[in-house]
Design brief:
The protein has about 140 residues and is of the alpha+beta class. The chain is built from 3 helices and 6 strands; from the N terminus they run H-E-E-E-E-H-H-E-E. Helices cover about 20% and strands about 35% of the residues.
Length: about 140
């Protein structure tokens, strides 16, 4: 087995973009119960934190609101800030999920990122709330 003693991707790359200040996601008071909202961003862009090359993806946000709903214009402005942010695709979905949960405290939420191929490999990342604790096997 070969071990890479000089990795191209560092811990700094792995954490890139996860703590950058972002605009607030505004909310409005929910008037109903027990329904699902799906938000679709088919033209999402971000940047690889190591190479600076663009990443293109399709972000789908699904959630069931409790007391607050996400305000779409502020969400669009929030998502647009990723355009110049160096961040890994896996971190994008988890950061969006954490930030939206902080903003609206939904009953449940899912953020799915379907990222276009780069170098022949595409990635699909799904982050869910509530987050399962100590999950060792994939959900069925």
């Amino acid at each position: 087995m070969m071990t890479n003693t000089n990795p191209l991707y560092t811990d700094e790359h792995a954490a890139a973009g996860t703590k950058e200040p972002m605009p607030a996601i505004e909310t409005w008071q929910n008037q109903f119960r027990s329904y699902e909202i799906l938000i679709d961003d088919p033209e999402f862009t971000s940047v690889c934190p190591r190479t600076g090359l663009p990443d293109f993806g399709h972000i789908i946000i699904r959630y069931m609101p409790k007391d607050k709903c996400l305000e779409l214009k502020s969400l669009k402005e929030y998502l647009f800030c990723y355009r110049n942010l160096g961040i890994f695709q896996e971190n994008i979905c988890n950061r969006i999920l954490d930030d939206m949960v902080t903003a609206c405290d939904p009953i449940w939420a899912e953020v799915k990122g379907d990222f276009r191929p780069r170098g022949g490999i595409s990635t699909v990342v799904t982050a869910t709330y509530p987050r399962p604790h100590d999950q060792t096997t994939p959900p069925r």
